[in-house]
Amino acid sequence: MTKALKLAVVGHTNVGKTSLLRTLTRDVGFGEVSHRPSTTRHVEGARLSVDGEALLELYDTPGLEDAIALLDYLERLDRPGERLDGPARLARFLDGSEARQRFEQEAKVLRQLLASDAGLYVIDAREPVLAKYRDELAVLSMCGRPLLPVLNFVSSSQHREQDWRDALARLGLHALVCFDSVAPPLDGERRLYDSLALLQEKARPQLQRLIDDHLAQRQLRKSSGARLIAELLLDCAACRRSVAAQAVLEQGAIRELHQTIRQREQRCVEALLRLYAFRQDDAKAGDLPLLDGRWGDDLFNPETLKQLGINIGGGMAAGAATGVGVDLLVGGITLGAAALIGAVLGGSAQTLRGYGARLKGKLKGQRELTVDDAVLRLLALRQQLLLQALEARGHAAVEAINLSTPQDTSWREGKLPEALHKARAHPEWSSLNPGATLEDGDRQEQVQQLAAELL
Amino acid sequence: MHRGAMYRPLRLCSGFHSAMEHRVSPLNTPTPSRLQRLWLSETIRLREEHAGPLDDSEANRRAQAKGGALAERIQNRAWLLAERDGQVSALQHWLHGAHLAGLLLVLLAILSGTSLAVAALGDGLRPVNVFWALGSLLGLNLLLLLGWALGLLLSRDSAGALGHLWLWLSAKLARDAQAAQLAPALLLMLQRQRLSRWGLGVLVQGFWLLTLITALLTLLALLATRRYGFVWESTLLGGDSFIAMTQAIGSLPALLGFSLPDAELIRASGDSALANESARLSWAGWLVGVLVVYGLLPRLGLLLFCLWRWRRGCAALSLDLSLPGYSLLRERLQPSSERLGVCDEAPTQLHQPHAGSHTEGSQGALLVAVELDPQRSWPPALPKGVGDAGVIDSREQRNQLLDQLSRFPPARLLIACDPRRSPDRGSLALLGELARTASATRIWLLPPPPGEALDSARLGDWHRALEQLQLSYSDSAPFSWLENGHD
Prior knowledge:
The complex is a heterodimer of chains A (about 450) and B (about 475). With about 450 residues, chain A is of the alpha/beta class.
């Protein structure tokens, strides 16, 4: 069992230390984030594990606010005729009374950094390089721990990355990572841990494990997400409502269908949010454009007929074969009755009954309402966009994602995937229909194929 | 596929059971096998997918405490939940039923094996027609073997019709919602490794092997205790072709040491049943050999093959962790990040900087800027008589200015701050210290550079902080105050 690498996340107040922790731990509820300075006033830890093994401990610390005065104070701690090194000077400071009064917050940070293997120095890249930041780095460097500067808010238009690079280089800090905690780059964590491994060579194996695990988890989340979307699409494509042919009833049925589809989409959004460990209100599906339903005659859709044929044929054949087996076994005394019963039993009585009900409805003048192709395309598009947005979203982000309808109408065109065409003929595949059989092997196969197409 | 529709569900059960190596003793406290644990995990997953998440905090905690890899934790959790909700006992009932069904099946195999042999040899009063005997011993077997092989080759997954029937039956028979997902879960799990065909295969082959063994034993017993004469009859076939056929069929068993009637004997048996002992022995040996080689051995081979595939498939069975249901459990059972809690408490009160004013002997007016962006042009055009102390940023600049101000305290001091910085304690302490050197102090919160906007939340923070310091502030330059002492 390797010892977890301890990291102190330090920096000026209000630069996003807690946000960085939220994003690195994928925990939207960690600590408290606000625009006020000194929001975090305590030291709080979080642990990252892979397969149950703790690999990294991160500690959120209060912001440094009074570094100029602290450095001044620290330099006056030397008694005449002695010259202390950094840690010795800090030890004297931490023993003294100012460490419990004016510099209490700063003392917390320094104590935590001293207890850690390395520090992440978080920088608000929009800030100019002021003297107080340089003094902060001077104070922190007295701890004798490697520091990795992390530039936050680099996706802002006003960032001064180059100024900071130059300034840090002058202070001897050449390794540096850009990591926006609200919109982290896809390989941001890898770069962060790689740079850390350069500073802490002995921790490289565990950091590499962390990197590999993150990659694997990302793939897994993505394929799970695609599956959720595929389920949504299949559910909607196979959804079917039978309505008597009267204008009023039809309007009502269309509205009800819309409501059902909208709720189903919201369920998918919530599942995706859960999958990516975001809050339930971090994304909202906007209104679906009110399109007319699709009055499909799927009753004679080739897929329906094919399925009917295969089911009945296959079932009858299997049933008859079984019956013949019984006949032979008992020396033919059932006179083929077993074969007949077998054929009827195996002949997918369910399929026949289901189809018969639909046929009866048709003859009685009922119409079948299904979801328009365009709505399916829109759902696919929106959910895919959401999936991408969630992938690129840091857990420090506070603004909700809004799923709107794209302005251009290209989503109305194009071919639907084969699996959805198939689903049209299988009302029993939709959880929105009564009597659904979701564990059907064929359905699972189609979900898988569709999910692969969505990736 | 080929036999008694009414036994289908049972057969599937005992196929499952036979691979479990009888480790389960139903109705006792069970030690779950790997397959059972996987099955229950899948059942719980389906149940949660249908009925929404279960109340699982206790199960999660216990599963997490037990440790292990994620798949193991999921199985532990599923087991705990299944124990609580009754799926475990449903499973035990089900296995018990499977045992009984297996026994019934064995009984049926023995019965039909015996009757096959008895029907083949007849009552011994009439001579045995060798090809009729052969046909009734092997005909059905070979026919159904062919059917099984075709089904295996042609169907994508042979759980198809049988599986559906079983699902339908178990849905009809399921007494409560807790157990409703048991059957679909098993099928789904087996389908993923295409295992159901091999499980069924084990069952079918096992059944037939047992039937044929019983038939063989009965045959031997009958042959040992009764005297049978053997004849062949044909209207169309001549003696020669009959001899060729008999010897062709018998050549393979002959390699294993079973007797093969010679041409003379066969020709003679065409007329009437031979009374001599060697002819009877020869025919009986031939019959037994054919039964063993074309009936027993293929079934045995196929049984071993199916068993091997089943075992291999079972070993490869695992939870598909990419399923959304399991992905969600990952964070709950094996969190990739956990909070460690607060390890250094927040103080009840933060150190507060304070301001004040200097009352005696102050004169003149001074503008000073604190921590300005170097890109901003500074100072602005100043009225006459107002001194400019520049921009202070570093410690040295601070100390220098404070020294100077304490020697020559200004009457009016205007401090310019950029409200885009955050109002931290260090800056506020500096403002307070500067204010204490002057008789009157005001803060000028600078407007943003063109094209940028101030963050209103941060501006609010500045206002609050300055109010606490009791310093007056404005967002425009109070130059007239600075120049004249009044607005």
